[in-house]
Amino acid sequence: MKKIAVLTSGGDAPGMNAAVRAVVRSTIYYGAKAYGIKQGYHGLIRGQIEEMDLSSVADIIHRGGTKLQTARSEEFMTVAGRKRAMYTVEMFEIDGIVVIGGDGSFKGAQKLAELGVPIIGIPGTIDNDLRYTESTIGFDTAVNTVLDAISKIRDTSSSHGRANIIQVMGRHCGDIALHTGLAGGAESIIVPEMYFDIKKVCGKLVQGKNRGKLHSIIILAEGVGDGIETAKRIEEITGIETRVTILGHIQRGGSPTAYDRILASKMGARAVQLLLEGKQARAVGIKGLKVIDVSLSEAINGGSWFNKEMYELADILSL
Ligand code: ATP
User: What topology does CATH give the domain 140-252?
Assistant: First the structure.
């Protein structure tokens, strides 16, 4: 394998840059040429590809976003679009591609692999919604960003004796809400994976207020629904003033945590090794301290397991 290309696709996540750096530097270390594809599959279709050297990934390990930029490509979802993408692969004589992205990007990678391109996926998404791996790149940073926001909102919430709903990202997955809820000592965590009983949430609020609690934090995963609507219902039931903060894209940015940088570095290096070992259509992941790899289809169809034990623990500790 002489030429290995890397792209970032779908939603950006802090740590993608560290993964790109690891792919480029490992490729060069093992004696192959490294290429960067701009704007994910969109750039692959348009031939936005260039050789990368050691210095082209200097000074990016600590930066959020992705130097290669990312995109969502409707065209790549079509057979004709993927044919065009193959034209770029053939013209630049690319021997293998590393795709950094979420489940959608992995589906695209699988389709490209079916056309005969050796491909390895690296999970890069803040949502943590790929179940074959314990963590995706960007999740830890997003959790820490939300935690910082919780601390700040808690200060103002205490001063006014209000309840606060903090709406967090994660699409259909409640992991950001679950982890930030436990780590941030939230009174209630509302996630799509668990039945949501508004009466229980309100009961906790009233109970807390009656024993002199100054603040109440409710973490709401975006996959459940609208924070503003939920706040209205809580106010109606309890009479407690309830404010809403929708954190939005702030969760996608920022310098990646040490955990995400290390995870990205390990995964990037392993992805290159797998290509050099002749492996194809695999996805790297993490289990404990070990970097693992599974087939792309296993990675995509990993199910929607939810950590109920952790959810129950958060419930017990927020009595
Ligand atoms: P995130 O989880 O952060 O949203 P993602 O990788 O899941 O990231 P998507 O927008 O779902 O983001 O997918 C990224 C791109 O992958 C799409 O714009 C499309 O080009 C490609 N893709 C997604 N699903 C498919 C599919 N079934 N077939 C071919 N290509 C796909």
Answer: Rossmann fold (3.40.50)
